[in-house]
Specification:
It contains eleven helices and 17 strands. The chain has about 475 residues and is of the alpha/beta class. This is Peptidase S8/S53 domain-containing protein.
């Protein structure tokens, strides 16, 4: 049902978050009988059940939901909102795509350093197999980038497992292509494929489940984690309807009602509690969003967890300065900002022509793609030192970060990332207070190698991680 011109909501489908100390199976059966609802699906590890209501109006849904909320076994209820498709706005101002923006993150140097360690250190440097989960619909196996992955994986290098997506330039193909793709001139970034070609071992599983809602994404994430994923890429997020961006304009993309946001927050907190207690080594990398707003009213980016890395987007400044200079890159104006953002990365991946995003969809740029770069480097760090904890990984990402200055219009209000502490920044002599964190893939891998040799180096450097 349409709530307004930006939000539609499912009248007959909700998810129940049962209290953790209840018997999920027994309570689900009782609730189904008591409230005359049909069980659609369950997420057993989270004690979450999805049910279908006999409701055709908002009033009817509200009545049933209100009754179930008062049930002693129910902690919360998730209603599912979505945004209707609408034509692209021809007046929408889009910054031109960056050219090879990942140069600002020293990607090529990272690949060469990984190759050097494999070849020069031999048996003393044996990368660990790492499984990466990407919560996306799928990839197009008919494209040049992914056709080779349609054949059975040989168990070496980098393997990609996904559903087929008919959209060649779909979001999943662009995100996945930053991690894995066929290697050829002017092809995709394919960071983990490059590492796999020189001795790394990565399995990348792309799965969003059968539906597109937040509950489906969490269900897919639970399945991926239970299948052995160590790094989970979440290139998605939602804003609270009514949020204003930094220009004072209403955010109208990926917005949800207050009722939906309350349910999503409870569901996400249940997921991260489960991760902490059952899968404490898993790292979730999440995009900050592209609404030129803060992360305050954005999920999941506003949440605080030692296992969540939030990523903003930057682009090259086009100033003729060294890559280590704080002026080399600037925050992309569309990227969300704020102190919950741990680090920024290149927002414009320059995908190959086979997966290039068409004009008008953000210019092929966004924090979704920045998050994928960070996912790749986190997976590489774990392959080097599998004993690294999520907290240590967050610390090393920020300790290795290159400095970046805010745009003039941002500097007066809110920074693009949590500021770098001068004492914690080991990368550059120019690093100073009120400069912000720009991913350095090369230095991050170098620190991972050092922590493998000297485990005490991985410890939190004097309270750098502020929750």
């Amino acid at each position: 049902m349409t709530i307004n011109d930006r939000v539609v909501t499912a009248l007959d489908l909700v998810s129940l978050i049962l209290r953790e100390n209840t018997n999920g199976l027994l309570e689900t059966r009782r609730i189904a009988l008591q409230y005359d609802v049909d069980i659609v699906g369950v997420i057993p590890p989270l004690n979450v059940v999805q049910v279908r209501l006999r409701a055709r109006t908002l009033a009817a849904r509200h009545s049933i939901v209100s009754s179930m909320k008062s049930d002693p076994a129910v902690q919360g209820i998730v209603v599912e909102d979505d945004n209707p498709e609408r034509p692209e706005d021809p007046e929408r101002i889009i910054e031109p795509p960056d050219q090879a923006g990942w140069i600002a993150n020293k990607l090529e140097q990272a690949v060469e350093a990984f190759k050097h360690n494999v070849r020069e250190q031999g048996r003393s440097f044996q990368p660990t197999n790492v499984v990466v989960g990407v919560v996306e619909k799928g990839v197009n196996f008919e494209s040049t980038d992914f056709s080779a992955f349609a054949a059975p994986c040989k168990g070496v290098g980098t393997c990609l497992y996904a559903r087929h997506s008919s959209a060649i330039n779909g979001h999943g193909s662009v995100v996945a292509g930053i991690l894995a793709a066929r290697l050829y001139p002017r092809g995709n970034v394919a960071f983990l494929s490059r590492l796999g070609a020189v001795g790394g071992r990565f399995d990348i599983i792309v799965d969003r489940g059968a539906a597109s809602g937040v509950t489906a994404r969490i269900a897919a994430s639970v399945n991926l984690v239970e299948d052995g994923v160590r790094v989970l890429n979440w290139s998605w997020g939602v804003h609270r309807i009514g949020t204003l961006n930094l220009r004072g304009e209403p955010v109208d993309i990926n917005v949800r009602t207050d009722e939906a946001m309350a349910g999503y927050e409870l569901l996400l907190r249940r997921f991260f509690d489960w991760l902490e207690h059952r899968h404490s080594s898993v790292v979730v990398v999440n995009s900050a969003g592209n609404s030129a707003s803060t992360t305050d009213d954005h999920l999941p980016a506003s949440l605080s967890s030692a296992q969540l890395v939030v990523v903003g987007g930057h682009q090259r400044s086009r100033q003729v300065v060294d890559v280590a200079d704080p002026r080399f890159a600037v925050p992309r104006s569309s990227s969300n900002v704020g102190p919950r953002i741990d680090i920024s990365a290149a927002a414009c991946p320059n995908p190959s022509r086979s997966t290039a995003v068409r004009a008008g969809r953000g210019g092929g740029c966004g924090t979704s793609y920045a998050a994928a770069l960070v996912t790749g480097v986190v997976a590489a760090m774990i392959s080097i030192n599998p004993d690294l904890t999520p907290r240590q990984i967050k610390h090393l990402l920020r300790e290795s970060a290159l400095p970046m200055i805010a745009r003039p219009d941002q500097a007066r209000r809110i920074g693009p990332t949590r500021p770098i502490r001068a004492a914690a920044c080991s990368n550059n002599v120019a690093c100073a207070v009120e400069q912000f964190a720009r991913l350095d893939m090369h230095q991050a891998l170098a620190l991972a190698v050092k922590t493998k040799r000297h485990p005490s180096m991985a410890e939190d450097g004097g309270g750098e991680l502020l929750e």
